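Quick one, probably user error.
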């Protein structure tokens, strides 16, 4: 067991004028299962890289621990190698038998190590990399968002696996994963860092309790400041009035007043002015104390959505629908020239006001179905070259769809250019991103410099600003921080748009979906 101590840590990227960390100090233990929580762009991944010594910084990070990081970087050339050979390149000291032991716990067949790494699914890659990560001893592990793009079954396996381990920092926005796997939290608040024992739910409960107390204290201070200001103003008026009586008097009207009265009045005025200054100092102290109360409170702004009314009741309809890929299309199809079917005998109906969540294992056709719906809405048939269809797919004519793609790699250039391309009002786009906790300084950067979470927020903001009859979001929450997820939950429940969703965050799905459709591979009979 060792400790990691950060003292007066300050860091900003070269060419940037905003600090990611500024005079940050905290201490953590390498025996913990530590959850790392914070808004997008607050520096979670950056801190992991600082621990690895990848950047220069001010202050100090002291520890005897040696670090290893997930996910490993794999080049396109390395993806052609069998996983076992790839692991030998990545970590020459790895031992195959140890990796095989970890694979058993991750419910992954050993044969996957002898297939080209690029042919493995997202879930298989994640499990194989985690097996390599935990097979090596005496490392403190830095695990960065391991469940992105994983289906519910794979997430459950990873959750159970990490629960049995210790000695890691886990960066994740998956509330279920954090609750199951961690025993401490390291939280990047708005203006401070907090280390606390417990999981996400216990920390959130404590935070809400503390925020409520601080708001009450803030109200008390505001009332006290108001009273003090009234007292200071009243005393100042008395002092000014007394000061005016020092000089000049009518001896006939004020026959009981003498010249030495001036000294008395001056003394009295001085005391009143001193009282005003003391009261002003108390006001400043109250204001200083009040300002510290609200600095870390999360007060998510209520987002707005502009769903349109549509004249038809049924938006999307399928009957005995099948969808497959012809041989030669992205490695689909078999050696005998038969198409690879991802959907078969699929029956589906989306009505006005419904929010349907598509569930199923990776590769069961969720994204393929969404793309077919989008193409059918645009062209009327959804029959793109290279694919085969059967049965019926109908999308109501005139339906306006707002779509969020799970891919962000196409985002390039400035926000201004993006807004112009999408026909969005730039000021509204930036205002909405501010509500999603974008710092103003981010608006000056090109989007390729954004974190993955920030890129996803750009796509979500564009969707929210697009009036539509139907909102189709394909894995919208990958890389999105917990606080923004809560904002989106509140938004959907308030405006109740018609939606078609693919999302593996179980908490989000339970809260917003009105209906769940389980998609099974074609090898199984549809219910």
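Nope, works fine. Designed sequence:
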């Amino acid at each position: 067991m060792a400790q990691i101590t950060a003292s007066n840590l300050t860091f900003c990227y070269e060419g940037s004028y905003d600090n990611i960390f500024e005079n940050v100090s905290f201490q953590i233990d390498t025996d913990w299962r530590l959850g790392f929580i914070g808004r997008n762009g607050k520096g979670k991944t950056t801190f992991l890289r600082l621990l690895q010594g990848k950047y220069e910084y001010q202050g100090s990070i002291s520890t005897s621990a040696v670090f290893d990081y997930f996910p490993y970087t794999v080049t396109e050339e390395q993806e052609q190698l069998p996983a076992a050979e790839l692991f030998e390149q990545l970590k020459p000291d790895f031992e195959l038998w140890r990796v095989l032991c970890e694979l058993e716990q991750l419910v992954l067949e050993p044969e996957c190590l002898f297939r080209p790494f690029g042919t493995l699914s997202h879930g298989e890659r994640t499990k194989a990399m985690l097996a390599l990560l935990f097979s090596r001893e005496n490392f403190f592990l830095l695990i960065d968002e391991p469940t992105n793009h994983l289906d519910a079954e794979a997430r459950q396996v990873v959750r159970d696996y990490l629960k049995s381990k210790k000695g890691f920092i886990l960066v994740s926005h998956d509330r279920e994963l954090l609750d199951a796997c961690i025993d401490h939290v390291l939280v990047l608040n708005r203006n401070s860092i907090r280390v606390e024992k417990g999981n996400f739910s216990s920390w959130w409960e404590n935070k809400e309790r503390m925020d409520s107390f601080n708001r009450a204290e803030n109200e008390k201070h505001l009332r006290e400041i108001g009273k003090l200001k009234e007292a200071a103003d009243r005393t100042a008026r008395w002092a000014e009035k007394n000061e005016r009586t020092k000089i000049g008097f009518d001896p006939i009207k004020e026959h009981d007043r003498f010249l030495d009265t001036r000294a008395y009045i001056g003394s009295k005025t001085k005391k009143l002015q001193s009282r005003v200054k003391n009261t002003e100092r108390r006001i400043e102290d109250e204001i200083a104390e009040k300002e510290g109360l609200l600095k870390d409170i999360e007060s998510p702004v209520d987002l707005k959505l502009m769903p349109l009314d549509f004249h038809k009741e049924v938006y999307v309809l399928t009957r005995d629908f099948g969808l497959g890929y012809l041989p030669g299309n992205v490695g689909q199809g078999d050696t005998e020239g038969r198409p690879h079917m991802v959907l078969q005998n699929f029956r589906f109906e989306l009505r006005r006001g419904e929010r349907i969540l598509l569930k199923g294992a990776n590769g069961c056709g969720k994204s393929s179905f969404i793309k077919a719906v989008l193409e059918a809405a645009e062209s009327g048939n959804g029959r793109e070259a290279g694919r085969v269809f059967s049965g019926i797919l109908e999308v109501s004519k005139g339906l306006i769809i707002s779509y969020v793609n799970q891919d962000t790699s196409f985002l390039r250039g400035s926000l201004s250019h993006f807004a112009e391309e999408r026909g969005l009002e730039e000021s509204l786009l930036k205002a909405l991103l501010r509500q999603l906790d974008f710092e103003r300084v981010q608006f000056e950067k090109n989007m390729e410099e954004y974190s993955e979470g920030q890129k996803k927020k750009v796509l979500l903001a564009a969707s929210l600003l697009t009036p539509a009859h139907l909102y189709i979001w394909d894995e919208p929450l990958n890389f999105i921080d917990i606080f923004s997820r809560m904002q989106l939950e509140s938004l959907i429940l308030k405006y109740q748009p018609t939606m078609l969703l693919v999302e593996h965050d179980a908490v989000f799905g339970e809260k917003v979906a009105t209906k769940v459709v389980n998609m099974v591979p074609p090898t199984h009979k549809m219910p």
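DSSP finds 14 helices and 17 strands in the chain.
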